[in-house]
Design brief:
- With about 110 residues, the protein is mainly alpha-helical.
- It has one domain.
- It is built from two helices and no strands.
- The longest helix has about 80 residues.
- The radius of gyration is 35 Å and the shape is rod-shaped.
- It starts with a helix and ends with a helix.
Length: about 110
């Protein structure tokens, strides 16, 4: 999630909290009812914030997990390619060694 979306969600939550608070303060209820409404409103906002945080946390874990898997795959591919290149180099060196042995055998006769 981009920082813009996170900031927008936070601004929305803060705006909602302010709106709920102002609405309840101007409502013609007893103080006890008003306090309970405020508490319920803040509890709802707290639950929404927890849900949002959990969502952001889960998304971050998924992205990290995917990045980790991609990195692991890249390293495995690199090692595999290196192994093939090493095998090619060994084969080339063995062929050159065989040629040198033949040339050396001719010189020793």
């Amino acid at each position: 999630m981009s920082s813009k979306n996170g900031n927008g969600a936070l601004a929305l939550l803060v705006g909602a909290a302010i709106g709920v608070g102002i609405g309840i303060l101007f409502a013609p209820d007893k103080g006890e009812k008003t306090r309970e409404k405020l508490k319920d409103g803040f509890d709802d906002l707290k639950d929404q914030a927890k849900d949002k945080w959990s969502s952001i946390e889960e998304e971050a874990k998924d992205k990290f997990s995917k990045s980790k898997a991609d990195f692991k795959e890249t390293v495995e591919d690199l090692l595999s390619n290196s192994s093939y290149k090493a095998e090619e180099a060994i084969t080339f060196l063995e062929e050159k060694l065989a040629e040198l042995k033949k040339q050396n055998a001719k010189l020793q006769k």
